[in-house]
Design a protein that fits this description.
Rossmann fold; six-stranded parallel sheet; six-stranded mixed sheet; 14 strands
């Protein structure tokens, strides 16, 4: 790396640390000598980086005392705060889930005097990280985030949370961490839906989901499904909790969809006693629906089907479904954010309502 590009890189890194709160207002930055060792470069390169920070008002230099984060930067933050910007990052927006949530959050924030900057991370944790930093850098005073499906929690979200930046998660939780979150009680919703299936005579029920999703909402649904069998004294075959699909992942393609359809066909061909399929989410429902059609079977004559979430117009509009109240979820999220910004007390975990619609895809078998 040339010395010219290196000093700009150092400048950006120091600027980011100031914005992120690593170096707070009136903090003294490391000396030039310390920074040369930290960045493995010359004092001339460090001086050029520091000069950019001075010119942009991030720091002030006092001969004999050191370089300090400037109060002028605090004024810049206050100006940003006067805009009342709230960042909203959703992992995907579709008619099945996300669109109603987006509309609700924008409406509620607007009514409370906030302005919204929206980003769609499209299920990509790298995009999510980029947008989180961008939104904070542009002066957002709080973030409402639907975390992406990923094996690990986003470290940037956790970092900003531990630096007391107002963050509210929606739809998905960071299990074991005290981040403010509003979501559906997926565990109870799945238990209730499973009880409905039992009442209709179904006991050979398979729960279909992606391979090792690790997503809190899906895991809660899976756990609710398993516990429903236990509490209702029903026997559940281990293979009926079927994590067999690629869905969902960041780069889910038509080829992946077709492969998942074949996985469901293979599974149903092997497990001939199954009478009902429980889709963990709507994309899974579409896969199951297509697999049943390719097998020349029908719903509900051959298989009953129930799903979480739904989008009209894509498949049979009368599929049994668990509908999350996205409008209420949005209202609760905005209320939590407003209280966090005003430094009022607010519960860490809140549930939004749901309802179960039977449709015509559930056959009574006794």
């Amino acid at each position: 790396m040339s010395s010219d590009s290196l000093y700009r890189s150092i400048y950006k890194d120091l600027k980011k640390k100031i914005i992120d709160g690593v170096y707070k207002i009136d903090d003294c930055l490391p000396t030039e000598e310390e920074l040369t060792k930290q960045y493995f470069t010359s004092r001339i390169t460090i001086k050029k980086a520091m000069q950019l920070l001075v010119e942009e008002g991030y720091v002030k230099r006092f001969p004999g005392r050191g370089t300090f984060v400037s109060s002028k930067y605090k004024e810049t933050l206050n100006n940003h705060e006067s805009l009342n910007l709230i960042g909203l990052v959703l992992s995907n927006v579709s008619a099945a889930f996300g669109l109603e949530l987006l509309i609700s959050i924008e409406k509620e924030l607007s009514e409370k005097g906030y302005n919204v900057v929206f980003k769609n991370s499209r299920g990509d944790i790298h995009l999510e990280t980029k947008y989180v930093d961008e939104l904070i850098n542009m002066g957002c005073i709080g973030l409402i985030i639907q975390p992406v499906h990923n094996e690990y929690y986003n470290e940037r979200i956790i970092f900003h949370h531990f630096n007391n930046f107002p963050i509210v998660l929606v739809d998905r939780d960071f299990a074991g961490m005290q981040l403010h979150c509003v979501r559906t009680d997926n565990y109870s919703a799945t238990q209730e839906a499973a009880k409905l299936l039992f009442d209709k005579g179904h006991e050979q029920i398979a729960f279909i989901c992606g391979k090792d999703s690790g997503v809190s909402s899906i895991e809660n649904r899976k756990n609710g499904f398993q516990s429903a069998f236990f509490y209702n004294q029903k026997f559940l075959k281990e293979q009926y909790v079927a994590s067999i699909l690629k869905c969902p992942n960041t780069d889910y393609t038509q080829e992946d969809f077709d492969e998942d359809v074949q996985s469901v066909i293979k599974f149903l061909t092997q497990e001939k006693e199954i009478t009902c399929l429980f889709a963990s989410e709507f994309t899974v429902c579409k896969i199951i629906y297509e697999a049943i059609k390719k097998m020349n079977k029908v719903i509900p004559g051959d298989y009953s089907l129930i799903t979480f979430d739904y989008s009209y117009g894509l498949i049979n509009p009368n599929i049994a479904r668990i509908i999350q109240d996205q409008t209420e979820m949005g209202k609760i999220a905005v209320s939590m954010m407003d209280k966090l910004i005003k430094k009022e007390n607010v519960a860490y975990k809140l549930f939004s309502p749901y309802k179960i619609i039977e449709g015509i895809s559930l056959r009574k078998i006794k």
